Amino acid sequence: MIDLLMRAFVLLPLTLLVACAADPAPAQPAAASEGPSRAVALTFDDLPLQGRPYDVGCDAAALLAMHDRLLAGLAAHGAPAVGFVNEGRACEALPAGTLEAVLTRWLDAGHDLGNHTATHPDLVRISAEDFTADILRGEALTRRLVEARGGRLRYFRHPYLHAGDTPEKKAAVEAFLAERGYTIAPVTLDSDEWVFAAAYARAVAEADTATAQRLRTEYVAWTEAVVAHFEGWSREVLGYELPQVALLHANLLNADTIGELAAMFARRGYRFVSLEEALRDPVYARPDPYVGRYGNSWLHRWARGAGLEVRWEPGAPDWVTAYYEAGR
Length: 328
Known about the structure:
five-stranded parallel beta sheet, 11 helices, two-stranded parallel ribbon
């Protein structure tokens, strides 16, 4: 997630970027295929639930119903997804087995699961040793469920997309992940979606149906503007449109709008692909050059590595941010 204050700062200078990321030559796009010319892999962070203070996190029936709606919407549009799990963030008041029931639903629907740490710590604020310990705590149940189906727990995503504020810390975590057999899941299509989601959860909790409807409608339209931005930004940075990797979250807003979001992607000529297929594009073999305090799209990171000034995606509208902040 992009920190609200991030746009006020400048990323580290190019002297901190790895040399192989500084090559400005555009990567070669993946081979063309039949059907829509654009591709997107959908990923959802923070399973079983993102959202504070307004959420359904301690209501097992509501939580499972939310995931059922989200999974039904993905199935209706034939969209594979990866759900990134925080095993240690489920509400303590939930009945035993609720988290396993959520994850089992995802696997039974044919989706993949990844590790998002146990408790969603910020790598900027803790040591590499404490962070890697939280990675281990975050994989016990997920690994068991995935391997029971003959799969492999292979994807990891950093909370907040914070991959390390020093070269030493970043390198230590990346070495640990490689040793554990993880692939770091990049993000190219990122946004302030979480601001909309928190505002929407508040509107639902307060039975403010008019605001909830307005948020749903504007969220879909705003997301399309964000997608359009990254389409153009990809062409500017790489010379072509790469298969996008979209970061969304497991929350009420996406459960209630997944049909409209999927229709928007389809209208723009996208086909839904797995994360595995998206990462076959050779550009994803480029290292992540950014070292610093913030989390942002890999397109922004590669742009800085090529000496380009970042053009930021649209932020959440002022009224949505104000509504969100008033409910904190």
